[in-house]
Design brief:
12 helices; 295 residues; globular
């Protein structure tokens, strides 16, 4: 259990860099994700060859993993679009809605009654987001894109929770990233003209940050979070990922000075969101401790 939480929070810390890098890399959101997934797939493929970690996957399971990779690709695309149409702080706060969506998606797809405490924590996050944004509609489009991203993230994590029961984390990550890359390859020729952007090669600066994003914030972070899914619920994973906004916003404050445009309601809402993560973490520890004692 402790190892799973350590893996999870290291992954969250690494994910905290993604928002800042999304603004730093001078590419449209879809091309950024396309390069990110392509480079990450190559890195995982090389690791699989040298360390023999990639297992054989049946065609049916491969298609499933590719499909989930497509959901992940769309989630990242909407996430970076949210940042580019608003700012890093707004995109990260919208991502915190993933806990709320998870509290609804998980029981529906598992055909069970919702856990009222999970829903309450999810609603607390909604209240925090409302406090942050109800006075400011300046970033309306960015907020909407961020909410779509968080919904897709909740769905992606739920499906992954079941996939890791039959496949190794490395295999899941490799096939999902490859699938997302292939799906985006078919989407880009239609997406780029629709937003008035031409396909371009990355600059040397962009390439450096794309490699950093792919190696640490994608390959390492995704592998750690998928490993943690073996021991934690998808709701706990998604709610804990709200801490990504704390790490990401600290970086945004230091680099882009975004705190200068944030007021009291923002920090009040942010405090509520962080509190939900602390409460859920303590709750999971208490439940597991009681189970071990009774066992």
């Amino acid at each position: 259990m402790k190892k799973a939480f350590v893996q999870l929070h290291v992954a969250i810390f690494l994910a905290g860099f993604t928002g800042v890098l999304g603004r730093l890399i001078s590419m449209d959101e879809a091309s950024l994700v396309w390069y990110r997934m392509g480079l990450s797939s190559i890195i995982l493929f090389v690791i699989g060859i040298f360390f023999r970690r990639t297992e054989h996957v049946a065609v049916r399971n491969m298609i499933t993993l590719f499909f989930v990779g497509g959901i992940m690709a769309l989630h990242w695309t909407f996430f970076y679009a949210s940042i580019k149409y608003s700012n890093v702080s707004v995109g990260l706060v919208c991502f915190s809605m993933v806990g709320f969506f998870s509290s609804i998606i998980e029981p529906i797809l598992e055909r069970r009654r919702p856990n009222l405490f999970d829903v309450a924590l999810g609603l607390a996050v909604v209240a925090g987001v409302y406090l942050i944004f109800h006075f400011d509609t300046h970033f309306r489009l960015g907020i909407l894109l961020g909410f779509i991203s968080s919904f897709l993230a909740a769905l992606f994590t739920f499906i992954n929770k079941h996939l890791v029961k039959t496949h190794q984390p490395h295999t899941v990550s490799l096939y999902e990233l490859t699938g997302g890359f292939l799906i985006l390859t078919f989407i880009l020729p239609f997406y780029l003209p629709a937003i008035g952007v031409q396909f371009t090669l990355p600059t040397w600066s962009d390439l450096f940050w794309l490699l950093f994003l792919s190696l640490f914030c994608t390959v390492l972070a995704l592998s750690l979070s998928v490993s943690a899914l073996k021991h934690l619920t998808s709701f706990t994973i998604n709610l804990s990922y709200n801490l990504e906004l704390v790490y990401g916003m600290v970086l945004a404050f230091l680099i882009y000075h975004e705190h200068q445009s944030l007021g009291f309601s923002f920090y009040t809402g942010l405090s509520i969101i962080v509190l939900t993560v602390v409460v859920q973490t303590l709750r999971v520890y208490r439940v597991r401790r009681n189970v071990s004692i009774s066992g």
